[in-house]
Amino acid sequence: MSARCDICSKEQQTGNQVSHSNIKTKRVWKPNIKRTKALINGTPKTIKVCTRCLRSGKVQRAI
């Protein structure tokens, strides 16, 4: 399962983890993705949405 939001296309980002001794190793930040039922064009559909889109109201959830 890819960590990508179907609404805003937010996906994982890469960077360096920096230790106290300044040793750098690669690391990954993943968005908080939830599988939710949402209304897409009036029909309920299961999509993957980040919690930022859920909280801001960009998605109308199907009940």
TrEMBL record:
The keyword ATP-binding does not apply. PANTHER family: 50S RIBOSOMAL PROTEIN L28 (PTHR39080), LARGE RIBOSOMAL SUBUNIT PROTEIN BL28A (PTHR39080:SF1). One of its GO terms (cellular component) is ribonucleoprotein complex. Belongs to the bacterial ribosomal protein bL28 family. One of its GO terms (biological process) is translation. The keyword Ribonucleoprotein applies. This is Large ribosomal subunit protein bL28. Keywords: Ribonucleoprotein, Ribosomal protein. It comes from the Bacteria. The gene is rpmB. GO terms for molecular function: structural constituent of ribosome. It comes from Capillibacterium thermochitinicola. It holds the Pfam family Ribosomal_L28.
